[in-house]
Amino acid sequence: MSNLQKKTDIILIGAGVMSATLGSLLKELAPEWEIKVFEKLASAGEESSNEWNNAGTGHAALCELNYTAEKPDGSVDISKATKINEQFQLSRQFWSYLVKSNLIRDPQDFIMPIPHMSLVQGEENVSFLKKRFEALSNNPLFQGMEFSDDLEKLKEWIPLIMEGRTSNEPLAATKIDSGTDVNFGALTRILFDHLKEKNVEINYKHSVEDLKRTSDGLWEVKVHDIESGNIEYHTAKFVFIGGGGGSLPLLQKTGIPESKRIGGFPVSGLFMVCNNPEVIEQHHGKVYGKAKVGAPPMSVPHLDTRYIDNKKSLLFGPFAGFSPKFLKTGSNLDLIGSVKPNNVFTMLAAGAKEMSLTKYLIQQVLLSKEKRIEELREFIPNAKSEDWDIVVAGQRVQVIKDTEDGGKGTLQFGTEVVSAADGSVAALLGASPGASTAVQVMLEVLERCFPQHMFEWKEKIKEMLPSYDVSLVDNPELFEEILASTAEALNLNEKQLVHS
Ligand SMILES: Cc1cc2nc3c(=O)[nH]c(=O)nc-3n(C[C@H](O)[C@H](O)[C@H](O)COP(=O)(O)OP(=O)(O)OC[C@H]3O[C@@H](n4cnc5c(N)ncnc54)[C@H](O)[C@@H]3O)c2cc1C
């Protein structure tokens, strides 16, 4: 056991896409600051950010029906969709900046163009999709979206889904070619390689066990070096808790008032992956359906062309389920260990409110492979069980907190930054829209924790992200410009032409 005291400017806990993004932003804005990273696993991007643990959708609200709710008057609310689209444009701009500055070599190592489609069945759903299409196509951010309920057109768009379909129920889809498949695992690894070149000290197999305030206002982080068994103490002016599902327990250890009365609700995931190259070749797109009644938003079924390990793949899912672990590599005691005197009533209230969701998730865990194939057949009527294998995806820990409109113990489906009033520590909780909006979320961390630097950083931020602080809905010309320039920098146009 050693008792080393090491000082640094910034500590990033966890080597997922969020720490990777924050570290990369900080290296551009304050290159002289010393950064250390502690990751308990052996390499970067192994938990939720790993390509097999998430769906790799560049969420820009081009196909996700849960981002456009139907209002009581029957009209479609697109405000969430425009917000998410604008946030995704920031990610595209940051990645483009890194490519143009030669900090990322080949964008196709992590991003590929892929049409995004929404598909619905039944009269009511078709009428909703049409209304949604009309609302979105009047908005500059969704130009180029097409709608069709013509079976011949649908056969052209989604031949695999249309083959063997016998139901007479009406069917409709929307399609937009500017969608993307993002390999967030590869992106995370690329960003950590870049950070290493910039002299960031990255410590793998180092688990953070505790955080304490020192008398001089710094944070002391207790780290367990898993290989040597040593305990180290590192101090920093600012700590980012980017532990994914592991963030909540670390946030609780800080003891900051903002960490109280917050709980976590873990949701596990499964995908089915196709092992038949002939089937994989017959599909090209990300096709999002509608969540079943009573299913949470993260279990919206979708059939996705993915690019993983330099190969085209086909995945279906995710099937949500219940597991008490906060990380895929976590412990069955994570959930119970997160119940503290300050959040026990919040957690109990959520438990009582979300009984039906818990029941649904447990039922989902118990589904046999054949039952899952039946759900897949709603997308691919001719799907054969032997063509599909099951892969376990990442864990999402949804935030539970007391809210004004939801009351005590309300389950949140979004992403949440929790920070100390003095900005010395921030944690990221929740998982949706997730990695796609990492740049926007990390900008929020910077705005909250470094307000004194934002004025001097603004010029550099605008150089990297021209749409920072600007509404793209209100500036359609800027949107056009950004969409075109990022498509060029990320080499998304050429591939779109090849596949269309
Ligand atoms: C099934 C599923 C599908 C998804 N689909 C999409 C999608 O299509 N598009 C999208 O944009 N997002 C998607 N997401 C969300 C996205 O994956 C996450 O938002 C994102 O990866 C979170 O990144 P992170 O860096 O916060 O966490 P992670 O990638 O989980 O990284 C956290 C890291 O912290 C480490 N860590 C934890 N505790 C400690 C500790 N005490 N000490 C040291 N290290 C620690 C972990 O080992 C891990 O490496 C999906 C998620 C899931 C689970």
Automatic annotation (TrEMBL):
GO terms for molecular function: (S)-2-hydroxyglutarate dehydrogenase activity; L-malate dehydrogenase (quinone) activity. It catalyses: (S)-malate + a quinone = a quinol + oxaloacetate. Pathway: Carbohydrate metabolism; tricarboxylic acid cycle; oxaloacetate from (S)-malate (quinone route): step 1/1. PANTHER family: L-2-HYDROXYGLUTARATE DEHYDROGENASE, MITOCHONDRIAL. Belongs to the MQO family. NCBIfam families: mal_quin_oxido (TIGR01320), PRK05257.1-1 (NF003603), PRK05257.1-3 (NF003604), PRK05257.1-4 (NF003605), PRK05257.2-1 (NF003606), PRK05257.2-4 (NF003608), PRK05257.3-1 (NF003610), PRK05257.3-2 (NF003611). This is Probable malate:quinone oxidoreductase.
